[in-house]
Amino acid sequence: METKTEIKEQINKIKENTEEVINLEELEIKLKKKQRLKVKLGIDPTASSIHLGFAVVLRKFRLFQELGHETFLILGDFTAMIGDPSGKSKTRPMLTKQEIEENLKTYIPQLGKIIDLSKTKIVYNSQWLSELKPEDIIKLSSKYTLAQMLEREDFKNRYKSNEPISLHELLYPLFQAYDSVYLQADVELGGIDQKFNFLVARYIQEKYEQDPEVAVMMPILEGIDGKNKMSKSLGNYIGIDEKPIDMFVKTMSIPDNLIRRYFSLCTNVPQENVEKLFSIHSNPRDVKLILAKEIVSIYHGEEEANKAYEEFINVYSKKELPANIPTFKLPPYLIDNQGNLNIVETLYTLGILESKAEAKRLLSQGGIYLNGKKLTSKIVKYEKPFIIRIGKFDYYNIENE
Predict the structure, then answer these.
(1) Burial of 96 (0-12, 13-18, 19+ CB in 10 A)
(2) Which of 132, 176, 258, 293 is least enclosed by beta carbons within 10 angstroms?
(3) Which has the closest alpha carbon to 203: 146, 154, 143?
(4) What global pTM score does this model have?
(5) 3-state SS assignment for residue 143
(6) Do 380 and 277 share a domain, yes or no?
(7) What is the pLDDT of residues 306-319, one digit of tens each?
(8) How many angstroms separate the Cα of 151 from the Cα of each of 70, 75, 200, 365, 382?
(9) For residue range 112-124, what is the model confidence (pLDDT) as tens digits?
């Protein structure tokens, strides 16, 4: 058995950087009763990549592994077909089994960058949810009322606005709760946006005569725009499988007021060390350079982080071009008699962009550059060198055949 001091130390580590824990007293009781807790983290593979926002939760999962607990990673292949309605203003489209399987192929290698896969029990919730008979689902549904479900803010707002709420969405929190019942989970991890689902899980566990799980909820990490939750759909994310230089540049684009928060939630640098950095460097950009290097190092190693740092300094500070720019050959028919070309047609024809619509959108938003100058017209004169930059990161050299 662990001593009171050791239990207190565990609790202090667990609650560090959390948004809320429900509740710490229960956690202490559980730790006194047994040395290894069953810790659950559920992931619905609705996208193919993991970003730093979700890594915040994964890093806490890794802590539980380091503390010696039994860690379960639930891949929600069943619940992903419903889609978590948390925070959604309308019904999410249901994913097919094939789409889910494709997403799962990329998930495991990415997860291994953060958690210890050798200490992780990976399970699919279709193993038990697909086995539920109609009478089992009726029994589960009878334990929670519609009135309770409509206490949830997103459902409440949609109901008041006469926006449709599908019955299958109401089942999502119940199925997630049943995952906890099936595993007899002691602890569940997630973002603070999962609070309603966790409260449902605790309630349902008690209805099945189990001790309610402790809900450990992490903060929602703001995206690089500094305003919204980090999200792939919003384009304000940093993917953990992105190229080192892309991770570096994106990190450098976060607002200065988020530097401390990113250090706290995305790295292992102690807070006192972060404060020392701010006292040493008067310019926040210098601290941000250290942050970017630290984040890239976590996912790609120190050597790649150093290379990304050098490339950033050369390309984005000294305005030099990056090494190994891909070269595309320009077919003669794309250049007219006056030596001009249509940049929208060109980028689409060469396969640099997937559609003409995307090229038009980027051009109208000022996201296409020629030799360092922002393009405002789709008709441009072809002259060497012809270096196209799209956004902040992607360079292309276009040469005529």
Answers:
(1) exposed
(2) 132
(3) 143
(4) 0.77
(5) coil
(6) no
(7) 999 998 888 766 66
(8) 33, 27, 11, 41, 61
(9) 999 999 999 999 9
